[in-house]
Design brief:
This protein is an all-alpha fold. It is about 75% helix and about 0% strand. The radius of gyration is 14 Å and the shape is globular.
Length: about 110
């Protein structure tokens, strides 16, 4: 019974939706991307209830967004500050995806 309450309150981040956003991230305007899509992706990457696959998919989308939204300073600061905690994640694949995403944002500026 306790388990059903936990899953009911969990916000679903499907990997299909995240890969869809990853595909369209390069086709969006930089300002639109920084204001709408990036906060959603960062919430998906940092959320405590998201699975490892969802975190990695969100971080890949954040990494590919660096090419488009690099001119947005606020987006850059948000990505670099909010993904810092993922560098200490217990799973190596999440740490690697976080490092790759941060590196892309550092190099894009």
């Amino acid at each position: 019974m306790n388990r059903s309450k936990k899953t009911a309150s969990r916000r679903m981040m499907s990997p299909a939706l995240l890969s869809f956003l990853d595909y369209y991230v390069g086709r969006l305007d930089a300002q639109l991307l920084a204001e709408t899509v990036l906060p959603y992706l960062l919430d998906a990457a940092i959320g405590p209830d998201t699975t490892m696959k969802e975190k990695i998919a969100a971080l890949k989308a954040v990494e590919s967004a660096s090419e488009t939204a690099a001119s947005e300073k606020a987006a850059r600061q948000a990505v670099l500050s909010r993904t810092a905690s993922l560098l200490d994640h217990r799973k190596r694949l999440v740490r690697k995806a976080a490092a790759d995403a941060r590196n892309a944002w550092f190099l894009a500026a």
